[in-house]
Amino acid sequence: MEQTMEQTTEQTTEQTTEQTTDQTTDQTTDQTTDQTTDQTTDQTTDQTTDQTTEQTIERQENYEYEPLVHTHFDISINIYISGYNEKKYTLPIWQREECWDYDFRKSLIESIMRGIDLPKLYIGEIKGMGQIIIDGGHRTRAIKSYMNNDYPFSKGQTSIYYNNNPSGNDTKSTRIMKKSELDRFNEYKLTICLYQDISENNARYIFNKLQNAKPMSVQDVVNSYQSYLVDVLRELLHESICGYSINEYFDILKALPKPDNSESLYQMLSWSTICWPDPIKPNKIDESMKWIEKGKTKHSRCYNYLKKFDSEISPDMKQDFKDFITKIICILNNKNIKVPTADLNTLCHSVRWIEDFNIQKFWKLFHIIQEFSSDKSSAKKENNKKHYTISETINKNADNVDKKYEYNLSKWIKSRTSGGSDASGMKVRYEIIKKYCLNNVNVATSTSNVEKSNNASNSESNKTNINWIATQGKPL
Q1: Is pLDDT at 470 greater than 50 in this prediction?
Q2: Could you tell me if 149 and 260 lie in one domain?
Q3: For 5-44, what is each residue's pLDDT tens digit?
Q4: pTM to 2 decimal places
Q5: Among 169, 324, 369, 421, who pairs with 293 as Cys (CB 3.0-4.6 Å)?
Q6: Is residue 121 part of a domain?
Q7: Number of structural domains, the chain?
Q8: The domain containing residue 143 runs over which residues?
């Protein structure tokens, strides 16, 4: 028995040892193989990466930019402005609009009179366009304006005009330049960098490069952006509606932003996103709400729409867009009141995309929303004054009106700030419009499934209504 136990133990021990040795050997072999494979893979990957990087660097080093030919020369202010007046060189349409205030212009003239060296002016010779001022438009216009006696510069307590005092005779506080000052100003040398025989694309490229170190508003970026869309919109701004250009209506209508600093062009771009959504996208309604918002940076949704826009703009599209703008202008002209930006965008979107949209019902709903918002503000003010009973009464009455509209009044107001003109805010107001602003819906009544109940006669009625507005609206 003892021998059997010993034999069994020895056999078991030998088997276990052999198995353990075999397993250890196998594991060691596997690990060695894995390590070798990993090293080989890493080496191969590193070599491939190095080769790719070297090839990329080699391509970059071997790439040669086509040099732009340019020269530098000095020219007196008198000769330079004479050339500008004679249109020997002009400002391109994509140059930034005049936005220097009096202090900037006055400071420029003071710098000239003190002999301070000014930055170069950049001019490009472009085939078919002649010479254009690529950079330096503000300085050019400011100098010309001073020489036209549009404003004075200051020397101590004295305001000094160029050669004509608008107030008449010179006084202690106001005079024209003395001959010595006039000569110094006229003979001041401006440095010109002239690019010869370049394309308009290169001129715009130079302009944008020069602006990298300067603050440019997104409106200016849009204005200078090389795009057929921008050119079309700029052209449309000069189209006439009832005796006024579209651009002039931005000064006339309270609901629109002022046209200064390319703001009117930026607004036209925003409207174009409503009319020309991406044709590839299946849901045109959603897409037409996606890019409306005008931001203040280059991350603006509207600006990004411009960068990705690559559709052809046919004459029919241009005419259709002008018809749309005409409707909007006539609608706004009939009221000529201030409208929050988010509400204005919803109005424009509804005119374009909601077939049975009724403008009278929109204005009625808009005024109810404004009254509700005003009552809520009044209640808050009364509460702050500790007039709690008055505040509670106003609040209760306002809430009853909101309840009548299924709390859509408060939803609308919230959407102005929570979402605004982005897709989320637009969608909230879009659904509210469909409840209350269609031909067969009473503003004071909420009706479900409105779209299903619309019929052809209502659609035709609304078209007649819109056409009437478009033809009857007259400027103020």
Answers
A1: no
A2: no
A3: 344 344 444 444 444 444 444 444 444 444 444 444 445 4
A4: 0.59
A5: 421
A6: yes
A7: 2
A8: 70-214
